[in-house]
Amino acid sequence: MYRPTYIKVDGNKLENNIKNIISNYSDYKYYFAVVKNNAYHHGIYAAKYMINGGANYLAVSSLEEAISLRKYFIDIPVLILEPIMSEYIYDAINNNITITIGSLTEAEDLCDLKLTDQVKVHLKIDSGMSRLGFRSQSDFDKAYKLLSDNKKVLIEGIYTHLATSGVNDLHYRDQINNFLKITRNVDLKSIPIIHVDRSLTLVTHDKLDFANGFRMGIAMYGYKPRINTGNFITKLKRNHLWKTNSIKGVHLTNNLDLEFPLSMYSKVIQVRRVLPGDFVGYGALYKVKDESYIATIPAGYADGVIKDFKCVYINNNPCEIVAECMDMIMVKVNNSVNVGDEVEIIGKHQSVKDVGLKAKLSGYKFLNLFSTRVPIVYTYDDEEIEIKY
């Protein structure tokens, strides 16, 4: 790499996370690894370690992401979770990519095409998110018949997305009921793949008897899905909710043992002595009170590194971030720090989750801060591989 700022992904940890999830929830046939947005900035090459761990289907948000995956992974099935414009369906077919159909209009547009090769589709149900998918049984039935009658269309799957954990609310139950209501005229056992649960709902509820797949999202990347049991009042309300609504099969704990595969590093490129009254960074916002040293590090908010991270570690010592700009941060150090010293932005001293909490961001939002301009180095056993995108 030309610039000393990079993300490191531990392939062994990622692979072991998948194995651990599957070993704890082994009653499924299809294990979808959600690798949208550059695999939550672990890089699409990270799918190699997910597949090693047992993932047998990949899921992305767009056709661009799906085609990018085909650069490295030719055979594994790939599902696009968002609808695509009908004129690009041929590109999906040519790259053996499964598409989502979530409306009667999309089904009609697909069937209006002069298809010469088969296309695989998964039907998306809007069970309550009000985002994407069939919301009425009537539209679903019409689309299902239209697609079933088309010999060039294979209905491989049906799925939905769940908005909440369903532990302290009824939304999970209501969404499952909506899903079953909308699809009630279809024998779900005849559909090859039914996938409903995501990381959080997977661990908080008993397995749905009609589902044979689930989507592994943020849990793959080390975030253990967990429920805050709450205080005494919260527990009373939850127990009342469960009793009043005859809710069973809800779990507050799980046996997952996950690690964070992602870390991030850079190097010091300048160190300068500053005096009382000097300022550091844009807006002259940081005023120097005592004679000290400022180190400049080539990682800024264009890379996903912001002042809200609070500190980085240099020589195992925390160093306060005092200023940020697009390509660099400036941190307060002592005179033992030299140009070329390694900077741990995320690593053994502060995990992805630790830094995300400092920035007051959920794991989903935090992992999507990082820029694709930051190169990724993969470690696996004793090998190290740099992938440039």
What would your notes on this structure say?
A 10-stranded mixed beta sheet has the order 11-14-17-16-15-18-10-1-19-20. About 25% of the residues lie in helices and about 25% in strands. The mean pLDDT is about 95. It has helices at about 10-25, 35-40, 45-55, 65-70, 90-95, 105-110, 135-150, 170-180, 200-205, 230-245, 350-360, 365, and strands at about 5-10, 30-35, 55-60, 80, 100, 120-125, 155-160, 195, 215, 260-265, 270-275, 280, 285, 290-295, 310-315, 315-325, 330-335, 340-345, 375-380, 385. With about 400 residues, the protein is α/β, with parallel strands linked by helices.
**Biggest sheet character:** 10 strands, mixed
The helix count comes to 12
CATH topology of the largest domain: TIM Barrel
Mean pLDDT: 96
Give the distance, in angstroms, between the N- and C-terminal Cα atoms: 12 Å
Gross morphology is globular
Using the coordinates above, name the CATH class of the largest domain: Alpha Beta
Helicity range: 25-40%
Radius of gyration: 24 Å
Main-sheet strand order equals 11-14-17-16-15-18-10-1-19-20
In total, how many beta strands? 20
Query: Spans with pLDDT under 50 lasting ≥5 residues?
Result: none
Q: Write the CATH architecture name of the largest domain.
A: Alpha-Beta Barrel
User: What do we call the CATH homologous superfamily of the largest domain?
Assistant: Alanine racemase
Q: What number of domains?
A: 2
Sequence-ordered SSE layout with sheet pairings:
Layout: E1 6-10, H1 11-24, E2 30-34, H2 36-41, H3 47-53, E3 57-60, H4 63-69, E4 78-80, H5 89-94, E5 99-101, H6 104-112, E6 119-125, H7 137-148, E7 153-160, H8 171-182, E8 193-195, H9 199-204, E9 213-216, H10 232-244, E10 262-267, E11 270-274, E12 279-280, E13 286-287, E14 292-297, E15 311-314, E16 317-324, E17 329-333, E18 342-346, H11 352-358, H12 363-367, E19 376-380, E20 383-387
Parallel strand pairs: 1-19, 2-3, 2-9, 3-4, 5-6, 6-7, 7-8
Antiparallel strand pairs: 1-10, 10-18, 11-14, 12-13, 14-17, 15-16, 15-18, 16-17, 19-20
Helix pairs in contact: 1-3, 6-7
